[in-house]
Amino acid sequence: MLRFAANLTAMYGKLSLLDAMTAAKADGFDAFECRTPFDFPKEVVRDHAADLGLTFVQFNCPMGNFAAGDRGLTCVPGREEEFRASIEKTIDYAQTLGVRQVNCVGGLRVPGAADDEIEDVMVRNLRYAAPRLADAGIKLQIEPINPLDTPGVFLTTTAQFKRIRERVSHPNLYLQYDFYHMQIVQGDLIRRYDELADVISHVQVADNPGRHEPGTGEINYDFIFRALEARGYDGWIGCEYAPSVSGPDSRRWLQNVGRS
């Protein structure tokens, strides 16, 4: 049976992390993911999740100053020391929170830097992060993101992922496969999933256009969920969408696919 986790940042973005956790539980979710847990002491987040009976699936490594426009540090020249510190912070939080996979967001192109230089920085940073996270029992993921929603983002395609993974040359580097981003950038969703299934550790869903819940756009999620079940996908499915309506109607699609 497919397992669905609420993405607190997307679904409950107006609430604090702790209040969003409570809301997700009230809405029937047993697991959650979020952009960042770092605004709260890790012990507070851990204890609140335990009190609610929620599984914390994953979070993003620190992304720099999000309010100032940062969208990740992994590919940004000149900020390598900041990146390394972010990995240590990630390990500290993940171990306390019982989280076993994290998403290391690539970041934006830097004006004046060539793509080859940016990729070299990303590869070096991932070579640093992959073994350290592996030693801590944590899977390292990276995620192609569409450049329409995030202009200037560097990592956008599965072809880039494959090349970067080959260059990093460490087994602890996985793909976070977001069907919404992939529909915008590449399409052919299941064929591309199949090409990389062995290194996909997490998938996320939202429909296009609008990034709302499955069933509101052009992506055939009935087909996709049947395909994931047929292939024996046993990871979590992150519901990273902005509800198009309030209340239970935005979650009615889950009734058609079952949940655990």
UniProtKB/TrEMBL annotation:
An annotated GO BP: glyoxylate metabolic process
Ranges that cross the membrane: none
Keywords associated with the record: Isomerase
Active site: 143, 240
The organism's place on the tree of life at top rank: Bacteria
InterPro entries according to UniProt: HyI-like, Sugar_Epim/Isomerase, Xyl_isomerase-like_sf, Xyl_isomerase-like_TIM-brl
Family per similarity comment: Belongs to the hyi family.
PANTHER family: HYDROXYPYRUVATE ISOMERASE-RELATED, ISOMERASE
Protein name as annotated: TIM barrel protein
